[in-house]
Specification:
single chain, 399 residues, Methyltransferase, Cobalt-precorrin-4 Transmethylase, Domain 2, elongated
Length: 399
């Protein structure tokens, strides 16, 4: 390996020094095509060795675990020669790229040197990533100064961190706080909103303009399947707060939500009052928590990168169906029923389900949805399943 000299996949070091520079070089290797870094070899390709290989290994593991986001998981080997000299070999792959420094700098390797990525290069790398980190993709045409809903954002920040404003704090530094939250990344000299940041805190009009397919369609059918006549259809666009709020209001127009299974007498009385003000005479009842959790999951776990498929909620006479763009999960879909998950969009989900975001969400996932739906309607939901790139879950109501 050493005889070939440095190239895109090999970096030679005489000794361990300058943690900041080493961090950038490891990131460049992992972001480009993987490769190796050898300690104890000089520029003339002579084996000089390192004095304390164990200490070098310890320091390298610290860099990979604590100075790089997401962490790099290296293979490190210590090689001894007959003359007593020892070198340290670090190898990395590209499984979890793109990696960045703690101050959000991305690097690539070009020949035997490293450099910062361009916007176009980073966009291409992001496009190759697994769905779990699409939420961290930068939105290049978003403007931090004009596209953020400051009221929604600072309401959330004040709620989760009431002690933020100290004597040294001045104003409302939206850009730096978004970056601290991982919802904005620095690319070259610009700080850009991520997909997750835009979906959570973007102004409704700008979200609709920048991500036109990030919408939600709700339809009330007069019948029990999608071929039935359409009574009303609404399409909601905007940030996740807008999508959630609009969907709940639409659902409440056509069904009754309960915290526990009501008696027949209570249900009939409630339906009579609702039907007096409604042109639709058929209303089913559902467990409130199961429906809210299904809606929350549809927003939190949706494949936001899909531009050819639309998220939909269909309300029928006897059921509600949630349909979401989805990629093949890392785990069997049936595992969701047992609470075993590999959640997509973890940052987006954490903020969406935080009480300070302002939505009355539920908790418990698919196991809770199934348990409450069965207890409420005495009938198991259909799904979850994934067909033709779409996640489907149908919950039956109580009539």
């Amino acid at each position: 390996m050493v005889r070939g000299g440095e190239d895109t996949y090999l970096e030679l070091k005489v000794r361990f020094s300058n943690i900041e520079k080493l961090t950038a070089e490891i990131i460049a290797l992992a972001n480009t095509g993987g490769g190796a870094m050898v300690f104890g070899v000089n520029d003339q390709l002579r084996i000089e060795g390192v004095d304390d290989p164990e200490a070098v290994e310890t320091d390298l593991r610290d860099i990979c675990a604590n100075h790089i986001q997401p962490p790099v998981f290296p293979y490190i080997n210590k090689v001894a020669f007959d003359n007593g000299r020892r070198i340290v070999l670090l190898e990395v792959d590209t499984d979890n790229r793109p990696h960045r420094t703690l101050d959000d700098r991305f690097y690539l390797r070009e020949g035997a040197t490293k450099r910062e990525t361009t916007r176009e290069e980073l966009s291409l790398i992001m496009g190759e990533m697994r769905l779990t980190r699409f939420e961290q993709t930068p939105v290049f045409h978003a403007d931090l100064e004009s596209d953020v809903d400051e009221s929604l954002f600072w309401s959330y920040v004040r709620g989760v961190n009431p002690g933020y404003w100290g004597e040294s704090t001045k104003g409302f530094p939206t850009d730096s706080v978004l970056r601290d939250m991982g919802l904005a990344v620095k690319i070259e000299d610009d700080l850009l909103l991520t997909v997750g940041g835009l979906l959570l805190f973007g102004l409704n009009g700008r979200v609709a303009e920048l991500m036109p397919r990030a919408d939600l369609q709700l339809t009330r059918h007069s019948g029990n399947d999608h071929n039935s006549p359409v009574i009303e259809r609404s399409q909601f666009q905007g940030n996740l707060f807008r999508l959630f709020d609009g969907a709940i209001n639409f659902i409440n127009r056509y069904v009754d939500l309960w915290d526990a299974r009501p008696s027949r007498k209570t249900r009939e009385s409630h339906s009579a009052d609702a039907e007096a003000d409604s042109f639709l005479q058929t209303r089913a009842s559902y467990h409130r928590g199961a429906i809210i959790e299904s809606l929350t999951n549809s927003l939190a776990h949706r494949d936001w990168s899909a531009r050819d498929r639309q998220a939909r909620i269909n309300i029928y006479d006897d059921s509600i169906e949630f349909i979401n763009p989805s990629q093949s999960p890392e785990l069997p879909i049936i595992s969701l029923r047992y609470g075993v998950t590999a959640p997509h969009n973890p940052r987006l989900k954490a903020i969406l389900t935080n009480q300070h975001y302002g939505l009355q969400t539920s908790r418990g996932g698919v196991p809770m949805i199934c348990a409450e739906a069965i207890n409420f309607a005495r009938r198991a939901p259909e799904g979850p399943s994934i067909t033709n790139g779409e996640f489907r879950l149908k919950i039956h109501g109580l009539r």
